[in-house]
Amino acid sequence: MVVTAIKQSSPDRLTVEFDGGETLVSTLGAVTDARLYVGLELDEEAFGELKRSSSKALDRQKALEILSRRPYSRRELKDKLLRRGTDEQSAEECIQWLSERGFLDDEEYAGAVARHYAAKGYGAGRVKTELRRRGIERELSDETLAALPENTEKIDAYIARRLRDPSDRDSVRKISAALFRRGYSWDEIRAALRRFDTETEED
Predict the structure, then answer these.
(1) Closest C-alpha among 12, 41, 6, 4 to residue 29
(2) Which of 6, 95, 102, 123 gives 184 a disulfide partner, CB atoms 3.0 to 4.6 angstroms apart?
(3) What does pTM read for this prediction?
(4) Mean pLDDT, the chain, integer
(5) DSSP state of 70
């Protein structure tokens, strides 16, 4: 099998053509590592190795393209690669390769997600849901939540914007329900409402 042409098919990809009409999509790195040139003859073993190295390089390139748009957790990125046609083993190898080079860090990602939702005024329950939805394991999720500072300022600001009359129990119930949906515990909600001298069901 003889290389008849090496063409750039996109900014990051090359197409290698062989006699007999066969083609192979690869990357500059894989082509360079294989020391390909027009006229080079490859035996079956060398061609098989080129296909494997090209596939691995393309998967890594695909993953880096995905990560260039926004951060992902390991599980999120793996799921995305699988949906784009990468097989299970290749996706796992790709995830490991990226993690070893610092492109994927679930601990850092979890912290960023938690801080983002806490800053938007959500409670620990909502933050925990978001972390689990994004593939963060339970142990790391719990550690991340434990590291968050108390969010009394946010919950107080939320109540202050909506509470007109602290003695209006209907309004207090609606605010309580809304805060619960935002991920605050009932203990946090009751403590916050007491700071506004509201009349709650316990009064």
Answers:
(1) 12
(2) 123
(3) 0.77
(4) 91
(5) S
CB 12 within 8 A of CB 27: yes
Give the integer Cα–Cα distance in Å for 27 and 34.
11
Cα distance between residue 194 and residue 37, in whole Å: 77
The four Cα atoms 185, 189, 195, 197 give a dihedral, to 10 degrees, of: -150
Element (H, E) at 8: strand 3-10
Q: Is the pLDDT of residue 203 over 80?
A: no
User: ∠148-177-114 over CA atoms, to 5°?
Assistant: 20
Going from the C-alpha of 147 to that of each of 97, 107, 117, 150, 181, the distances in angstroms are 28, 12, 14, 9, 22
Residue 87 and residue 16 share a domain? yes
Q: Are residues 51 and 75 in the same domain?
A: yes
Q: Are 32 and 95 in a shared domain?
A: yes
